[in-house]
Amino acid sequence: MANSQDVSVGNFIRYNGELVQVIEWQHRTPGNLRAFYQGKMRRVKDGKLAENRFRSGESVDIIRIETKEMGYLYQEGDAFICMDNESFDQIAIAKFMFGDGAKFMKEGDTVMIAFEGENPISAEPPSHAIIEITYTEPGVKGDTATNTLKSATTETGAIVMVPLFVNTGEKIKVDTRTGSYVERIK
Question: Which domains does the chain have, with CATH numbers?
């Protein structure tokens, strides 16, 4: 058992009998009251958020996890099928675990999966994706002076806001955490 001072953002803890991941963790000392930790946590099984206050020095059950690098193979319903690169075992990971980055994933991408024992509890898509634009309004020569953006549909079906000079058929780099355009790939 650890105490509330040992917890940091990204840790997995057992809270009210359920496994949660710490999203925010702040130490607060309000006026003449005792110090406490304010925690914002996401429940692993369904992604719901919860907030709670922990006394300074309160016992907290930090869960040890194992992280594996796996390859994304294909989508089957609401699950992504991923393969362990060492043992070649395939496992179905719920789509919601990947968050908003799931719409930029392509077959063959490398993803990070966190396990508690044999159960997957967290999934992280690659931080950046290189994808091709399948449709956007045509760009005009000289449209690089302003910071104006237009919408573009990608090969994965996601819609990204891109600069005016990007055309259909070009490849772009996208930040999967924010869904924003990073650069054009030549």
Answer: 2-63 (2.30.30.30), 66-124 (2.40.50.140), 128-185 (2.40.50.140)
Helix, strand, coil % over all residues of the chain, rounded to 5: 5, 55, 40
User: What one-letter code names the amino acid at 111?
Assistant: V
Give the tens place of pLDDT for each residue, 108-128: 889 999 888 888 888 888 889
**117 closest CA partner among 65, 80, 168, 40:** 65
DSSP character for 157? S
| Prediction pTM value | 0.71
Tokens of 180: 């924003």
